[in-house]
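This protein record is not my work; I was only asked to verify it. Where you disagree with what is written, explain briefly why. This is what I was given:
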Amino acid sequence: MWTIGEPRAYPIRTPSNLWACCILICGILVPGQSLSQSPSHQALTFEERCADPLVVLCDPLDEGRVQGIAINEKTPRATLPQALKGKYGDWRWCGRGNRASRQPPAIDQAIKTSGSGSLKFTVPSQSKEDASGYCQINFTPNNSVQFGEGETFYVQYRVRFSCELLYLVCDPQSPQYKKLRRAFRASHQQATAYKLSIINAGDHAELEFPVNSCTNQHLVLIGDRRGVIQGYHSCGLYDGHRQYLGLDQRTGSNLFDLQPKLRNKADKLRVCLNSKPSSSKLREDEPSGCALLVADEWLTLTQQVTIGQWANKLSDPRRSSNVKLWIAREGRTPELVIDYDRNLMAPEKSFMKYGKIWLLPFMTGKDPTEIHPDAYMWFDELIISRGPIAAAR
C-alpha cells in the first residue's frame, strides 16, 4: 500500500531532561509495498469472519439480521431498516442529527461490499455539524458483553468516502482531479475534521439514560482536512494518539507523530508529522509519511483496544493501555497505522465499560452557510470480537 522513500533528518530540540537533540526519521509513502502487516490472517468473506467463535457482534448494516451474543429471532431492531426507524433507548438505532436534517441515514442498495446494501450518510450543502445523523450500536442487545480493565477487544468495519467528501475537484477529465483536498469550513476555525466512529461505554441498567457520545472513555477516529486518519481519547480532554517528538530547532514549534507506532531505535519507519519542519503552520500539501484516506473504494479499518488499568490522569506514567489501528485498501494487505501505548481514563461510573459504537460523519463546528457539493460516507460489515479479526475479502 505504501513504501518508504529515502529517510530525511530534521533537527529537533527536546526537553533538557531527556536528550540534547535527536534525529527524526521521516519516510515518503508511495503506492506499492507494505510497511508492516496485521496479524497473519487469510482474507475472509464477511460470513467467514462472522463464524469465528470469539465474535460478539456481526452487523451486515443492511436488510440482513445481525448475528451475535444474546441475539435470537425475537431480538428487536435486528435489521438496518428497523434500526433506521429505532428510537431513543433502543440497543441499536439510527437518528437524525437534528430535526432540521434533510438527509437522515439510509440504506444504499447500490453501493455495498456484501449483502443487500450498506449504511449511507449524506453531508448536504449548507448543513450543520450534525446534519448527517448517526447510528449507535451496543455490542449486545442486553449489554452482557462489555470490556474493562485487563481485557482486549477488536472492532472492524468497512468505510467508503465519496470524492466530494475528500477532494475539491471530482471531474476525472480535470488535471486537478483528486489532487486538492477538501477542507470543510468551520465557524470557529479555518477548517473542521470529520469523525468516522466513536467507541464508547455501553448502556447499563444502573444508568438513568443511554450513554451519549461524549464520555471520559470514548475513542474516536477522525479524518483531518489533509486526509490524515487520526485517533483521540476522552471527550473534553481530546487527547490524541500522537507521540511528542520535541521542538523544531529553527521555529520552536512542537512536532508530533500523528500516527505513532512502537518501534526499536534502529527502525527507519515513517513519521506522520503534524507540521512541516521549519514551519509552524499546518501542512497544506499531501503529507509525506502519513497514511491517507482515499475516495471511491472500500477501506477496511480494524481497531484493537487493550485496556490496562484505568487512569485518573492522562499523565499517569504507567501508560498501561494500548490502541492499534490497521487500514486495508481494496485487495491489499492491512497496514499497521497506529500502535500506541497510552492511558485510558477511568469512566464516570465504576461499572461503565466499552460496549457501544457510533458510526457518523460528524463535523465539529461545521459552517452551515458554506456551499459545497453533497458528499457521502458509507459503512458496511461491522464486527466486534474478543479476538483478532481476519482481513476482509
In short: The chain is about 5% helix and 30% strand. Residues 46-50 form the longest helix (5 residues). The CA atoms of residues 122 and 376 lie 5 Å apart.
